[in-house]
Amino acid sequence: MPCQKSDELQRFVEEAKRYTKDGKVADYIPELGKANPGDLSIAINYPDGRCISAGDIDKKITLQSISKVISLALVLMERGYRYVFERVGMEPTGDPFNSIAKLETMPAKPLNPMINAGALVVTHMIKGDTVEDRFNRLLGFIRELADDSSIGYCENVARSEFESADLNRALCYFLKQHNIITEDVEPLLDLYTKQCAVEMNCLGLARIGMIFAMDGVDPLNGKRIMPDDVARICKTFMVTCGMYNASGEFAIKIGIPAKSGVSGGIMGAVPGKFGIGIFGPALDEKGNSVAGLKLLELLSKRYRLSMF
Ligand code: GLN
């Protein structure tokens, strides 16, 4: 079913777009610095297959941190709850996503799977004999969630991050020293940077958000893509840690499970209702899409979306 342009969404996009000038595109991954800071688009995907949108929804977005929710779902299915949470915690940190600070004060186990340290441990847990095997497993799962077999990854973004990921390398070496990670760091970073570079448009993001919103079932054919418990755990992390160290304010102002990435993407899952995909690469100082947040705030107020 083609995605319908919505006049009401378009008005929200125009209002929120004014805030793009307050943000900056991420450039610590050099390739991401090429994005146009003025872009803003949104798609909403309903369980009956309907879709509404505004803005240029054909632009491709790399998932970046949004991929952390999906890799978590995969390892929870592959390894089980106990194995995963013996290696990564469940608590928000209040620190930036790439912070190393708490690792040294805690018993080395990263506090949650949404910060880079925790996400690297999650990616480490993806099963398979080679990086290629493991990546294909994750990609297959992403394609199933998005119902789009054409989804791939952006080699330029993956390479650009791989070549500049010294902070993530440092996190990995620390975790390896403490036996939380037991493989070589370079292949793990290869896998992680490919995972972060998986790309799709807002429609894909909205569709994945809808599957989480519907507790892991594809409502169109009744197929269960993940156990409802896995979807529930992922949505809970989206609420408590999904917007990094802005998650508390986000819960108060907007109140829906959501996950952002430094490419400017946001995936939202309004429980039982619909999925949201947003692309707005101008970021605030915490790394969230500045206009994307505004857009979600407008939507949440207008349609009373807060779950609290
Ligand atoms: N690939 C990015 C990184 O590890 C993801 C971070 C993000 O989107 N916040 O730095």
Mean pLDDT: 96
Could you say how many structural domains there are in total? 2
Strand arrangement in the largest pleated sheet = 1-3-2-11-10-9
**What percentage of amino acids are in beta strands?**
5-15%
The structural class is alpha+beta
Roughly how much helix do the residues carry, as a percent range?
A: 40-55%
What is the name of the CATH superfamily of the largest domain?
Answer: DD-peptidase/beta-lactamase superfamily
H/E topology pattern: EHEEEHHHHHEHHHEHEEHHEEEH
Assign the CATH class of the largest domain.
Alpha Beta
The CATH topology name of the largest domain reads Beta-lactamase
Cα radius of gyration in angstroms: 18 Å
Bound molecules: glutamine
The CATH architecture assignment of the largest domain turns out to be 3-Layer(aba) Sandwich
Low-confidence stretches: none
**Topology, number of strands:** 11
Tell me the overall shape: globular
Helix tally?
13
Task: Report the sheet with the most strands, covering strand number, pairing sense and barrel closure.
Answer: 6 strands, mixed
